[in-house]
Specification:
The protein has three domains: 11-76; 89-133; 152-192 and 201-342, Ribonuclease H-like superfamily/Ribonuclease H (Nucleotidyltransferase, domain 5). The protein is built from 14 helices and five strands. It has helices at residues 11-22, 28-41, 46-53, 57-70, 72-76, 87-102, 113-120, 124-133, 152-164, 234-247, 267-275, 294-306, 314-330, 341-360; strands spanning 170-186, 205-218, 224-229, 253-258, 279-283. A five-stranded mixed sheet has the order 3-2-1-4-5, sandwiched between helices. α2 (28-41) crosses α4, α6 crosses α8 and α7 (113-120) packs across α8. The longest helix is centred in the C-terminal third of the chain and has 20 residues, at 341-360. It is extended and about 85 Å long.
Length: 361
């Protein structure tokens, strides 16, 4: 009588199997295999697991055996299968890759499976298989922007130093404005979420005005100082600095991280800062908004409260923003910066070298 191998899991293996079994983006076959191993680790027999998972007993035995032999690697990837080699695909793979990466269609910006297939005289399925095997996705692009700031390295080290090693007896605040937030109302009521259907909203909208959110994210606890104003000139920035002055302990120095918007460097702002010596400004490099952590918080409020909201007036929009800030401050969550300045500089150097090669080609 054949005896199924006993499954013993380490804490690390169990954690990974649980993550696979619950992952929403995990392939279904891997979810099934992870559940089989978790059931087997509880001492269940193959027959019981097969009945519970509504699969054949041989399937349970196969993945139980492979895990016992090779661990997680034995179930994560399928073993090579038999069959005839794809001779036809191998003959045109190099040509498909060369055309995809080095040439451009005459009347479009990029190839599709069908257009490249017609051009090379092969099926769209073959084009798709070659692209998938080599990680080619002509329909996708990623945006980027390299800073041209002459003092990029100096500013980068300054800001990252504040994130990783904040000064004692001081608060570090990441500050910025989210301007032109529109109070948009949909032309028809949205349909609610229901089983089998996502929520809906009309593509068109009515504009009811705009507001600007001034925000300062305190990095240690994650609390936010914020207010909405109609405009974002230097006058409003001074009012916001005064609000920060009022809502922070008077015996602490304040290190403010901000972008290079002209309002932040206005002569009146400089005179105000001279009269308030506990304020210290730190400017990020140009075209480097990713270095300002409050932008991460702006993404949250946009995704969770603004983008899909319907507002009948600017006042209603401001109320929604204030309520979101109050809820955030009731249970604040700090954003932790982990990237070191030297690692960022290395990435920037590689990006510049790649860009220089493209420009010289």
């Amino acid at each position: 009588m054949r005896i199924a191998p006993q499954i013993m899991l380490s804490d690390e293996d169990r954690t990974k199997l649980l993550r696979w079994s619950r992952g929403r983006s995990t392939p279904a076959r891997l979810v099934l295999r992870a559940n089989i191993i978790l059931d087997a680790a509880q001492g269940l027999r193959n027959e019981d697991i097969a009945k519970e998972r509504q699969i054949d007993r041989t399937v349970v035995g196969r993945w139980r055996r492979r895990f016992a032999q090779a661990g997680l690697a034995g179930i994560e990837k399928d073993l090579p299968r038999g069959g005839r080699r794809p001779v036809a695909r191998q003959a045109v793979t190099a040509k498909i890759i060369e055309w995809t990466t080095q040439r451009q269609p005459g009347n479009a910006t990029h190839w599709s499976c069908r257009t490249l297939g017609r051009e090379l005289g092969v099926s769209r399925c073959m084009i798709s298989r070659v692209w998938q095997a080599h990680g080619l996705k002509p329909h996708l692009t990623r945006t980027f922007k390299l800073s041209s700031d002459r003092n990029f390295a100096e500013k980068l080290v300054d800001v990252v130093g504040l994130y990783l090693n904040p000064p004692e007896h001081a608060l570090v605040l990441s500050c910025d404005e989210k301007s032109q937030i529109q109070a948009l109302d949909r032309t028809q009521p949205s349909l609610p979420l229901k089983k089998g259907r996502c929520g809906t909203m009309t593509h068109d909208y009515k504009r009811h005005g705009t507001t600007t959110l001034f925000a300062a994210l305190e990095l240690t606890e994650g609390k936010l100082i914020g207010t909405c104003m109609q405009r974002h000139r230097h006058q409003e920035w001074i009012k916001f600095l005064e609000l920060i002055d009022q809502q922070t302990a008077a015996d602490l120095d304040l290190h403010l991280i901000a972008d290079n918007y002209a309002t932040h460097k206005h002569p009146r702002i400089k005179r105000w800062l001279q009269r308030h010596p506990r304020f210290h400004m730190h400017f990020i490099p140009t075209s480097s908004s990713w270095l300002n952590l409050v932008e991460r918080w702006f993404r949250d409020i946009t995704d969770k409260r603004i983008r899909r909201g319907a507002f009948h007036s600017v006042e209603q929009l401001i109320t929604a923003i204030d309520d979101y800030i109050a809820a955030h401050n009731a249970q604040p969550r700090a954003f932790t910066w982990t990237a070191k300045a030297e690692n960022i500089m290395e990435k920037i150097r590689r990006a510049r070298n790649a860009l220089d090669k493209m420009q010289s080609a």
